[in-house]
Write a structure and sequence with these properties.
6-stranded antiparallel β-sheet, 16 strands, 8-stranded mixed β-sheet, about 45% helix, alpha/beta, globular
Length: about 475
């Protein structure tokens, strides 16, 4: 069996849902389990209406709710026809009536807990999965909606719950395997789950990809397909470099690094269950299903370039702690990272010297409490509006001169670097620079390591053909002369 996950833009309207249906129909022999996100834009609307209710702006929240309701009802009518959509419309109304009651409660209390937010956010995936399953049936496929909250079990860490693998795998086997054996197509909502007590949780924004990997690992899928609106992973962001090229095959470790440092095609946690079970993950385009996309495997053979891809992560903040030499002795680093742990701040890059430590983290976080704790260890400076450039490729450390070339390209562009880090995994070189220089840095690196390298390879590939053609011409000329 296989798992096919479709993102929000792949199910954004009736036309998109029918397109998904045709893609799934073409894979029926492979026993697909389908995982879907909420329709594009719905999760943002749910967040906005919950926050409005918490502020006491109930009319504003209800206005957003009416818009969400009308959009889903319209798509249901278009998908099934007004006469045949009564059952689906009733299910939609039931879900949204329940959501309306939740919003009233939030407004009355003036408080929006993480548990309540999960309850609100789950609505998007519940509705989209119900609609997609109904659409499949209308297209002649035997499809069954499976509420993910019956199958994916997590802890109680609301808005970013952690799956409990053993319990989840058992529930997936009980709920989904019999449907596959009966030739049916299960359709589940991504992103949503529940505790062992049945309380709704979510896996965090982008968690539908994670859901697909959890389901794939639990059911021992042959592969996991992530269907988006792009042809696969690219050598860099095509909005920065229109010359960016599609990556055909990439290793799990490389893809994880790229996802963490800004590649938006997939959620970084997606790969964890797949890596553990050695399940290949494919990134495919629902608007261009004939494209082979990108295959992510445990290991990928090195390509012709030094690097596989370049990622840019904007909105970074650098926190540096400088202390007298005596404080760099035993215990200093432990105290520093204990402070990060207490404030639940995740570091992206870390650079250390004899007298200082510099750490990058998300610039959107409030770090005032963290800074107060760090000031007990030394002098603290905070620098905002930074970006991280990450170059990823297998065995970079084994390639002489590659780092020197990277930094010489930055020097040629008069781009100042604030921090430099080479990952312990030896598959990335990362550095911090001013956010305004990020796009220029990526363009320079991509031009050298990808565009020029490709031209050189094409010339090398053409040389034998040219030489053969010249030899043939000389042979023909010689034969003509003899005649």
């Amino acid at each position: 069996m296989i798992v096919m996950k479709f993102g929000g833009t792949s199910v954004e309207n009736e036309k998109a849902m029918r397109r998904v249906g045709e893609i799934v129909r073409g894979r029926l022999k492979q026993k697909p389990v389908v995982v879907v996100s909420a329709m594009a834009g719905i999760t943002d609307s749910l967040v906005a209406m919950a926050n409005s209710a918490a502020r006491g702006a109930l009319p504003e929240a209800f206005k957003l709710l009416r818009q969400v309701r009308q959009r889903h009802v319209n798509v249901a009518n278009e998908l099934l026809g007004a006469r045949n959509s009564s059952e689906l419309r009733a299910a939609i109304q039931q879900q949204l009536d329940a959501l309306q009651d939740v919003l009233r409660g939030v407004a009355a209390l003036g408080e929006l807990s993480a548990r309540t937010m999960d309850n609100v956010l789950a609505t998007g995936e519940v509705l989209s999965s119900q609609m997609v399953a109904a659409g499949f049936r209308a297209m002649g496929m035997e499809s069954v909606h499976v509420d993910s909250r019956r199958c994916v079990v997590t802890d109680g860490n609301h808005t970013k719950a952690v799956p409990l693998a053993d319990a989840t795998n058992e529930k997936l086997r009980q709920a989904v395997r019999p449907l596959l054996a009966a030739g049916k197509v299960p359709v589940m909502g991504g992103f949503i789950a529940a505790t062992e007590d049945g309380v709704t949780t979510t896996l965090g924004r982008g968690g539908s990809d994670f859901s697909a990997a959890i389901v794939g690992a639990g059911l021992q899928a042959r592969r996991i397909e992530i269907w988006t609106d792009v042809d696969g992973m690219m050598t860099t962001d095509p909005r920065i470099c229109p010359e960016a090229q599609k990556i055909d095959v990439i290793g799990f470790d490389e893809a994880s690094e790229l996802a963490y440092f800004g590649a938006k095609v997939l959620h970084p946690a997606t790969l964890i269950p797949a890596v553990e079970k050695d399940i290949p993950v494919y990134i495919l385009n629902s608007r261009n299903p004939r494209n082979k996309g990108t295959c992510i495997r445990r290991h990928a053979r090195p390509g012709g370039n030094f690097f596989r891809a370049i990622a840019l992560k904007k909105g970074a903040r650098v926190i540096s702690v400088r202390s007298p030499r005596m404080l760099m002795a035993h215990g200093f680093l432990r105290a520093l990272f204990e402070a990060f742990d207490r404030h639940a701040c995740v570091a992206d890059l870390v650079s250390t010297s004899e007298v200082s430590v510099s750490v990058t983290l998300d610039g959107a976080r409030d770090v005032s409490g963290l800074v107060r704790d760090l000031e007990k260890l030394g002098d603290v400076s905070v620098e905002d509006k930074k970006a991280i450039v990450c170059l990823v490729g297998e065995d970079i450390s084994g390639r002489v001169g590659v780092a020197a070339k990277v930094f010489s390209l930055m020097a040629e562009g008069n781009i100042n670097l604030h921090m430099i880090s080479q990952g312990a995994s030896e598959i990335n070189i990362s550095f911090v620079l001013e956010e305004r220089d990020g796009a220029d840095a990526v363009k320079r690196l991509h031009r050298h390591f990808f565009e020029r390298s490709n031209v050189a390879r094409q010339k090398r590939a053409a040389a034998p053909m040219r030489d053969s053609a010249l030899a043939l011409m000389n042979e023909v000329s010689a034969q003509s002369g003899v005649a």
